[in-house]
Amino acid sequence: MKVNALFVAPYTAMKNLIEECFAEEADIDLAIRIGNLQEGVAAAKNAGAEGFDVIISRGGTAKLIAETIDLPVIDVHVSGYDILRAFTLANDFPRKKAIVGFPAITLGAKSIIDLLEIPIDIFTIDDERETEPLLQKLKQNGYEVIMGDVVTFETASKMGLLGILIQSGREAIFDAFKEAKTVSSWMVKKKREVELLKAILATAATDFIVFSESSEIVYEQWKNFTSRPISEIPASQRMADNKEQTNVIDHNGIPFKVTMKKIPVESLSYFFIKIEPMEISSELMESINIRVMSPPMIIHQSTTMSSCLDFIERSLSYNWFILIGKQGTGKELIAQYIHYHKFHGSGLFATIHARHFLEIDVGKLDKDIKSIYIHSIEQESSNRKELMGKLKSLKGMGLSIILAMMEEQPELGNIIYEDDTIRIPIPSLAERREDLRELVSSFLAYYHQTLGTSAVKVKEDGQTLLEKYEWPGNVKELKALLKDAVLMEKGYVIEKPIIEKLLNRKKGTGIQPELLTGSLEEIEKKIIEHVLKEEDYNQTKTAKRLNVNRSTLWRKLKQEI
Question: What residue segments make up the domains of the chain, in order of their start?
């Protein structure tokens, strides 16, 4: 196969020599264009689109083309013969001589001058703009004969100096043709390898995109998409190591799984991102929340929460977990914690309501789902037998099953109390009061970033009120109250009156579920003790809130139940 080459000659006289040499070359199809430096770049601008395999040029023109055009560029070197011919031509001029040019000329000339001890000075330039000032200086210093490339020759001639063009001879042209054939042969081989790899990728992977470290698209292939479903590296998926990560995206209402791997190539790294349909029905997708978890931050200054997390760390080899805690204690966050630390951030985490869990076909779960968190089990008491059967069907699937309950349910004993099940009590906020200050700070920071609110601190007397409150709704209730507070407060510090107002609003707004258990007398005493505690054990205020006199209140507190 012939090499399709473009020869950009920096001076007109070179064209005749190129044509003479080309007449003896059978393995190259050659086009010749004339242009020096930027003119040469313009002549080569569309070489790739025109089907050329390689570009041949000389000196500074070759250098500029190589910096601009994405094709291999062969530089016609200035040979020792070329320089000797120029020296011979200049030898008959008994004037002060100099060689001025780019390193491609001056380096070779210096070797010959040093070897033959020829009295000619050498001056090297790196940019054509240096030529005229340098020649002006040389002229002032008595130089009259200037040898060099096209720019040097033309500038010297304009300044009244004798310019001698160092031209490339037949040897240099034939060497360039030989190098062009070698490079072109190598390029053809590499193109074949690339096409083979593309064919393999087309067979092995349907839809994917490759990014460079600077987020530029290197290659992409889409078969199941009419438009590019992803145009940048997902921020949440950037990774420091080469571990594979999986996420889920929604494209035109359809869920797709995104799998990314960082691929190091020598000193560079690339991101290979494969996109494929979720192995899950659209009906199932509506009832199940699937995502990859980053490590969740769980505040654990308190002994109770710290012990809870320590217990989880020691139990990660198990696959079945029961989270037992009141509403609002953060059971889903704990479930995410289990998933992340058990699978080290890989795989998908699915959240589903117990009612919807009863409706799904567990055999259609995507293979990348590693953990399933099932909540609201209490609401399915009438379907308890069916629920137990469905849960048992998950055994042996290699999944991490995490059930959430507000309290232990002995009716599910076959599952709850088995040896391979870990029961994890989740402490209420009242049991982890040491965490309250940090929780407050974290929620203030969250709303500051997401809602743009001003408040960044709760005043100390307001903080004291928060610490005295029982928090029946636990962490979720604290978060909701602080949202109201930051929206009410326009300054940077939430004052006590706002906290007081929000807490007082809770009084009398309803009876807490735990107060309604037991006999009538027991419920009555629980309510009295609860109100008494809220009023800092002031019996007068307590009697007023309960609409009874103090003697009645005292008698009810003293009576035995």
Answer: 3-76+173-187, 80-167, 205-277, 285-427, 431-506, 516-558
